[in-house]
Amino acid sequence: MNQFPISTTFDVPGTDIVQYRGAAYGIVVRSMGFAKGIGAAFKGITGGEVSQYTRLLEDSRRQAVDRLIQNAIALGGNAVIGMRFDSSEIGGQFTEIVAYGTAVIVQPRQQ
Questions:
Q1: Domains identified in the chain, total number
Q2: Bridge partners of residue 16, in order along the sequence
Q3: Does residue 41 register a pLDDT over 80?
Q4: Which residue segment(s) compose the domain that 76 sits in?
């Protein structure tokens, strides 16, 4: 996506919010997979970073943000404010990643 402003605060610096379009979100549910899960389990025993999970979560967050942007655009927004991530485990096998915030329409601030 091209330069779609996303802010973890409740404004976008240098702009004015002219309209609130509603809650926007992007959800991804992923499974590690059997082979990678075994490798991660061995790494968990020996200690250290479990790179398989790190990559999985990084990719999942990126995809959740892409889906958040798509949802915000569908709501008529051109930016998202108050963006947050949430994650949870489903049934011990799946990880859910949610990116959410408020879709808004912003315009450059008039000086």
A1: 1
A2: 107
A3: no
A4: 15-108
